[in-house]
Amino acid sequence: MSLARPDALDITTKQKVALAIGIIGLFILTLALFNTNFPNEGLFLTLSLGLIAVGIVIYSREAYLNKLEGIKNDGQWFKSISSRGVWGWIVGVILTTFYIVLYFYPQYLGLGVDGASNTGLISLFDPLSQLLSGRNASQWFVYGTLYTIAILAFGYKFILKYRHNRYQQVRTVSVMFFQLGFAFLIPEFMYVMNNDLPYYDLKSVWPLNYYIFDEWSVKGFLSNGNIGLALIIFGILSIFVISPILTYKFGKRWYCSWVCGCGGLAETAGDSFRHLSSKKMSAWKLERWLIHTVLVFSVVMTTAMVYTYLGYDSNDFWLTRDVFISLVIGFLTLVFIGVMFFKRQELGKDAKYGAIGFFITIALLLIMHFTGTTDQLFYIKSGALRSTYGIYIGSIFSGVIGTGFYPILGSRSWCRFGCPMAAILGFQQRLFSKFRITTNGGQCISCGNCSNSCEMGIDVRHYAQKGENIVRSSCVGCGICSAVCPRGVLKLENDSMKGRINPTEVLLGNDVDLMELVNQK
Amino acid sequence: MEHIVIIGNGISGVTLARHIRKLSDKKITIVSAETDYFFSRTALMYVYMGHMKFEHTQPYENWFWEKNRINLKKGYVKTVQTTSKTLHFAGGDTLQYDKLVIATGSKPNKFGWPGQDLEGVMGMYHKQDLDNLEKHAPNKEVCKRAVIVGGGLIGIELAEMLNSRSIPVTFLVRESSFWNGVLPEGESAMINRHIKNHHIDLRLSTNLKEIKSDDNGKVKSVIIEETGEEIPCNVVGLTAGVSPNIDFIKDSEIETGRGVKVNRYLETNIPDVYAIGDCAEQHEAIGNRRPIEAVWYTGRMMGEALAQTICGNRRPYNPGHWFNSAKFMDIEYQTYGWVFGAKGRPDYEQHFHWKHDDDTKCITVAYHKDTQEFLGINTFGIRMRHETFDTWLTEKRDVDYVMNHLSDANFDPEFYSKFEKEILSAYNNKLQTA
């Protein structure tokens, strides 16, 4: 297929102009990166971000508005950038490099260390940061701004691409709103109101924001009176109360493809790469081991972090180490026994792996409790455990690989292989949720458009062609499989729990007696 | 161990093989000359359009076959000797079977047009047709125009394919309106307009007279029967229907008509030889169905049924309520039960037709004019639930019930506009004025 370079895929003159506009915007950022001193940083920052956004907007309008409404995937496997071609690799390398510098060498972006003022790229963003929160920019502010611009501009593109599909539009407006408001603006305003509060993106739920229960974070919140206390209570409620209720009603999509920032970027800027995820059975196996290992790691790590700053004496504070570790083990055991008792049947073969995960977690917690000292856990410094997680999971996995490898691994490799939040929501979606993708009787023609466009690498067709509903823990409910299906076979819906999983052998439309005979087994 | 040999690795043969494996330990061999592995024929168009790669059209990973002990043999069966139960391949080798299943599908129709075998003339059915199209129509510089002959489902898909690469298309349709042998008038007319909106040069009531060759034996142009007009082109797509792909058994003992003649048990006149899918022809049509059903779903159902018979539980092919689906460029189509176009419509069948103002959505509901029994529905641009209509057809609901409960059958994605109220009020108005 590589020989085929259909001319229809060539972009129009207007799109070339739009690309040029965007590249000029990026070029200004590049100049700043190499320490060009702009006379009026505010003006050039506005110009740069404005040009990037305008370029994307013009490009998208030209791409979609001149055609009739419908599925717009023509040539996605021909274009170099979206089929792991040369451009795909170039963009991948640039993004990956950017992430490595961002996480590990922010000084190269111009971050002023030890009170020195910012230079380079970061100083270009000082005026905007000053405007919003009255302080100079950090590398995270630069990143947050670019991230938000990407979600907004590519979100606009996505809305045009799916302008016949209200589900896609509403969902995209939602991620754009949450990114702009919750991830970007509100934390800045919170800082203005109370600059002692730790950074808190309200929509980022533990274990995604693995640092929320760290000592500095908890102390930061608690030293800020009622508002701080309210925030940390909200953080606890988010994972233990709010998220289970919403996931029960709507599936994990309420978070992963409506609210989450990682998901938001994947669905907008990453949309052109969604089909690159591997649909192989082997990838699925890897996924299940990897994501649950990260989950175990994050549970143990968080427990350990809280554990280290708790005391032994119940006279100081009721939550002692003993009480805390008992609470954690008790809670996990309750969940485990509940699932094994009520949902053993639905788990099937996975029950064994669930049990392995549970017992490993408990064993780790017990080992920790009986061998740990004030600053050592598992015979290593407790801080080292936390920073290992931060570096390997929080930075390398979610950022460098998760986003940097978009053009190679597809847009959701972090969400699929690494995100512990996704693992928890997925576990619940699989067992206690009204959500499913319903298969429309016997209408599937096995064409594979659904599987091809699944960013989570689910082989949707495997279920659809058997007339089975899709109930998979990894499904983020983006709805693209349903959109691209040429036969109207798939529908995301929240319905009753009963009959949600419906294995069939013989499909609707065949001999009624035969269907009953074979399907009853 | 009994050896089941299936000729053809399409949906019928593969469904059969899978079900035999579920039910038994028999030795299974699937023979194909087309591809190494099963792929979804309906998805070939998306490969040309760049939505997918060819490997994505394969519903099972390559390890699947060995894991399930289904042998795959690539080869072209030249003759079948039923007395000795032997297949003779074009390569000279042979294969013994205990039971033989012919599932060779279809081939594009050619009606003896002058020039129909020139280079650049092709159907759009086999993997080889796709390769051929890629060769002759890689882009609009190599292929300055393509002419498609025959207005059916494959024709409009081929038009969509070529359109995706900006290759100008002239679409010759013999009928006075697109696919009106099947679709009622209002729907057919809406699709005509939709095709034209995609800048396709749709020529209705137009026949092909001949295909002209250049000096190298390649297509140069086509001549229109009615007007004598010559249309220069580089590719001609012949999509005037398909017929059973059974030339290789014409000289055998197996009885054939247009297809391989089978009874309701999908058995041929020769013991231990069966036929399923597009190539099977029923002695007598089942209900309103055609004796040869060249449809994905029916092929699959025959596979499901025959697996029972071969594994000792002899069952007839006894399909349930008719259903089908297609997509016309951007407009999805589903049908449940029977809705006839002008051709062959029974006297008792009456229609209610509703069309949305945007000209991309419409439905036609067929009912019995005396008993008011609901007979079937065609829906365009609105997805509907198979299970709901299947139940209503079994329960023999009347048309009023169906119209009043149409929202129960809605299968559109969440947040989509709903049209049931509008449809119902149009239906009630019509009854008042009728």
From TrEMBL, chain B:
GO terms for molecular function: oxidoreductase activity. It comes from the Bacteria. Residues 3-285 form the FAD/NAD(P)-binding domain. The keyword Flavoprotein applies. Gene3D superfamilies: FAD/NAD(P)-binding domain. It holds the Pfam family Pyr_redox_2. Keywords: FAD, Flavoprotein. The keyword Chloroplast does not apply. InterPro entries: FAD-bd_OxRdtase (IPR050260), FAD/NAD-bd_sf (IPR036188), FAD/NAD-binding_dom (IPR023753). Its cofactor is FAD. Belongs to the FAD-dependent oxidoreductase family. This is NAD(P)/FAD-dependent oxidoreductase. It comes from Winogradskyella flava.
